[in-house]
Design goal:
Elements (H helix, E strand, L loop, with lengths): L7 H23 L4 E4 L1 H7 L8 E4 L3 H7 L3 E5 L4 E6 L2 E7 L1 E3 L11 E3 L2 H6 L9 E3 L4 E3 L4 H7 L1 E2 L5 H7 L3 H12 L2 E2 L1 H10 L8 H13 L3 H10 L3 H4 L1 H4 L16 H15 L12 H16 L4 H4 L1 E2 L3 E2 L3 H15 L4 H13 L11 H9 L3 H13 L6 H12 L2 H4 L7 H6 L6 H15 L6 H12 L2
Parallel strand pairs: 2-5, 10-11
Antiparallel strand pairs: 1-2, 1-8, 3-4, 4-5, 6-7, 8-9, 12-13
Helix pairs in contact: 6-8, 7-9, 7-10, 9-14, 10-13, 13-14, 13-19, 14-17, 14-19, 16-17, 18-23, 23-24
Length: 466
């Protein structure tokens, strides 16, 4: 079936978003206020990409903004931030401000309204600290962000230690921006992170999880995990992952090196298999970001059980590391405050990551049951990238995928030939025997050994007498 090209629709929506943002600036100007595009949208435009959202900074006070625009939400009015809704889009409009001390390591205790220069100095990184006047087509760069874009650097504005003490999550955000754009972290900024890393756990797990999600579902997730490790952050966030460092593996199965090295290669292969969206710099589609998060976490955690099951017998072995790892993954998901659905899928993927091995020797019923699981496409992808990061043998993966593509849905998920009511009609009493009989009947149905209800009932009678 021919796929529809939807490229024009997202582009037209981005154009409408931009036009609406410009109109908001115009309306603020008409009321006598200064207003500029601020932060990430300015960075993106300078990099040659059409932004997916626009923040606006102004000398208008929150009350002024609320009076000018019809639909507003005072999301952070104490910090001078108002959400304006126009044409179905949300725009964060913030009054130029400088911040006082940050007692809680996240929010300023006090804010003082100021001008654009003062506002730039309180932001996180130079590449995010620039302004743009869309009416007069002028850029305002008080922090050297333009030079750092050219130098491909993520640099904290002012004193890095002060910026990170204000909001400790910025230490992980530095890694995210470096990965997203394939930039380096400026030396003094990196050294400040290495010194202050121990404060990262004062940040809520929900915020850490959300940054980790962006790193793992963005470009270069392997680089992100390596950076987190190099900057001392990983050992506090995910000590189970750092425990994989130095854990040896049998060279015939893993010529690439230890478990940590293999995991980074697995993430690299996963990143290479994704298709970039049209935004240009390695952002991914909404579908990738939703399901891709669970798959990426499973790729990161699939071998965490090896560090605790390592043993040398006839060779290096990791007996039961899939099940042990699944238990560890479940605890990590709970620690990161993931939803039950996310936890269940990630845990299942870790537990099943070796399941496709020897698929060609499996019974067809076993494979069809696997194909019927909604997580199978993610499991197949995990098996593929895991294999590419080690032996490179994709024979079982290809065998499964070919069969999965050839089979019709009704062959994978056929309607049951009989139910528990049919067993009761045969005179059987409900109990554990029911599930055993029905499972056996389903296997024979999947293998096409029985195809009618009459055959199923006859088989059920035989099984019930065993």
């Amino acid at each position: 079936m021919k796929k529809t090209n939807n490229k024009a629709e997202p582009d037209s929506r981005k154009e409408l978003l931009k036009e609406t943002a410009i109109d908001i600036v115009k309306r603020l100007r008409e009321k006598g206020f200064n207003a500029l595009f601020a932060g990430g949208c300015v960075r993106d435009m300078l990099m040659g990409y059409l932004p997916e959202d626009y923040d606006i900074a102004t000398d208008a006070r929150p009350d002024d903004i609320i009076n000018i625009f019809e639909r507003t939400v005072p999301v952070g009015i104490h910090y001078g931030v108002v959400l304006v809704i126009e044409n179905g889009f949300e725009f964060e409009i913030a009054t130029f401000r400088s911040d006082g001390t940050y007692t809680d390591g996240r929010h300023p205790d006090t804010v003082t309204f100021c001008d654009a220069r003062g506002d730039a100095l309180r932001r996180d990184f130079t590449i995010n600290g620039m302004f743009y006047d869309p009416i007069d087509d002028k850029h305002f760069d008080y922090v050297g962000g333009g030079e750092d874009l050219k130098a491909r650097l993520v640099r904290a504005i002012g004193d890095p230690s002060e910026r990170f003490n204000e909001d400790r999550l910025r230490m992980i955000r530095a890694v995210r921006f470096a990965c997203r754009f394939n930039y380096n972290i400026e030396n003094q900024t990196a050294e400040a992170i290495k010194t202050l890393y121990h404060k990262i756990l004062t940040v809520s797990m929900e915020r850490i999880r959300d940054e980790l999600r962006k790193i793992l579902t963005g470009p270069n997730p392997h680089t992100g995990i390596k950076m987190l490790d190099d900057l001392n952050l990983l050992k506090d966030i995910l000590p189970e992952v750092t425990a994989m460092k130095g854990v040896r593996q049998p060279e015939n199965y893993h010529p690439e090196g230890d478990v940590f090295t293999h995991t980074l290669l697995t993430l690299s292969e996963l990143s290479a298999s994704r298709k970039p969206a049209d935004s240009g710099f390695g952002m991914f589609t909404a579908l990738s970001l939703s399901k891709g998060w669970e798959l990426a976490m499973a790729a990161l955690l699939h071998d965490i059980g090896k560090s605790v099951t390592f043993e040398i017998a006839d060779r290096i072995r990791f007996n039961n590391h899939d099940n042990v790892g699944a238990g560890m993954a479940e605890k990590i998901c709970e620690r990161l405050r993931m939803s039950n659905a996310e936890k269940e899928r990630i845990t299942w993927l870790v537990k099943m990551h070796l399941y496709l091995r020897h698929a060609q020797q499996m019974r067809i019923s076993k494979l069809k049951r696997l194909f019927a699981h909604e997580g199978y496409p993610e499991l197949a992808e995990l098996y593929k990238v895991d294999s590419l990061a080690s032996t490179g043998d994709l024979e079982d993966y290809t065998f499964c995928q070919d069969m999965f593509e050839e089979l019709k849905e009704e062959e994978i998920k056929p309607e049951p030939l009989i139910t528990g009511n049919d067993l009761i009609a045969l005179g059987l009493k409900p109990g554990p025997i029911f599930s055993k009989v029905l499972d056996a009947i389903k296997d024979e149905q999947l293998e096409q050994k029985i195809t009618t209800k009459e055959e199923a009932l006859k088989k059920a009678k035989e099984l019930a007498t065993l």
